[in-house]
Sequence to fold (308 residues):
Amino acid sequence: MSVPPTAVSRAPKTHPERSLLFDREGLRPRWRVLLFLAAVFLLWPQTARPANWIVARGWTTGLDEWTALMHLAAFAAVLIPTIIASRLERLPLASYGLPWRQAFRANFWEGTAWGLGAITLQVGVLRATHSISFQLSALTARTTLAFAGRWAVTMLAVALFEECLKRGYLQSLSSRSLGFWPAAIVLGCLFGLEKLLVAEYRNPIAFVSVVLYALLMCLTLNLTGDLWFAIGFHYAMEWSTVFVFGIRTPIIPNPQGTLLKAVLQGPAWITGGHSGLMASILTPMWMLLVWMALRARFSRTRQLRDST
Fold:
């Protein structure tokens, strides 16, 4: 007489690779992305508490200091989940583009030089076409140096937050399932759509520029192997735009304590108008030029890195 099969034997076997939640490596990348973003949003109010405490006591004296505090808090909200993810996945932070031993070294400073050069080129074209003029500020030498340092800290905080959020863990994780460039395009478009929440970015040229900028920074990640070039580029671009040239941006609509004060006097499609330089037709043009120049600059370096 045969023994009837048990309930356990009748139950279908589950295969991790066929599960909606898990694959052979554990939790599927899409759910890790959602968990990471949820952790950032949940941590943000907590990491912002010290900044809010400082602001509430009136210890900040300008928009630059407030912006620096808020972005440093946001950077902490991104960095903590990234560190936790590196421990859980047993991977170094360098796997997410953040090798700390390379912080503020050659790649960062070269990126800084490229960022300064890119914005200076755009402003030079605007000046040559009589689309912009400048007024020299009345700041003393000592005050100018103080504001230069304050704006440098502010824009470095902005660069750290945005590059680590958009091109760090999310780019690394998405690349595993989509491939590097498909992941870069998807994330670039998603964060471009997020920018539409800001009225100044609701401009076709600005949206295209935001997506192209995301791809350009991903190119530097792909060529150099880490985010420090992108962080330096982003920092220098923002710092020179606001402090050196005194040009408004969506996050700094009325910059104070700047070396120069820009006066826009050309059509908005050339100058960007109230939307900032991202809405200028010159922005996607110089991005394409920088793209080609970077590929030429790092082609040999990348070949050597890939061969090792």
The CA atoms of residues 243 and 258 lie 4 Å apart. The longest strand covers residues 132-136. The beta strands are 22-23, 26-27, 132-136, 260-264. DSSP finds twelve helices and four strands in the chain.
